[in-house]
Amino acid sequence: MVLNGCASLALIEELLVRVGFRNDIRRTLLMAGRVLALAFVLQLFVRHVVIGQISTAAPLNLVVRDEPYFRSAQETGDALLKSNILVVSSSIQHTLVGPRVGDELIARIDADKGVCLLNSMSFPDVSLRVYRRGC
Hints:
- The structure is a single chain.
- The chain has helices at 2-19, 23-50, 73-80, 102-111; strands at 85-89, 115-122, 127-133.
- By secondary structure, it is of the alpha+beta class.
- The chain folds into 2 domains: 2-50, no CATH class; 67-133.
- Strands 1-3-2 form a 3-stranded antiparallel sheet, covered by helices on one side.
- A hairpin with a 4-residue loop joins strand 2 (115-122) and strand 3.
- The radius of gyration is 26 Å and the shape is elongated.
- The mean pLDDT is 81.
């Protein structure tokens, strides 16, 4: 939004130059436009955040587990299958901690009857699969 606003102000300035306004009038019009844009954004912030329903605080109820640090596909698969939503990528070359077991995990989860595939995405060097427990 900020970049769009800056681009719009630059285009407005260019338009004012083409129309032929003098420098002092052009500067006054640009300043008025900036003040109006700031007032509009401030009004949106006050209406939607201060007195509205949008909260600026994000809930920190993220559950972090140790699946990336397990040393075998068996341990990782056992831990992943305890979740309701599973996101698994195929094996990729990386320098991160842990083995590259994505392809083994995908094969194991595909074979599990209690888990169904929600979505599959392919990228140039990796595929990503999203599963749900209890179809």
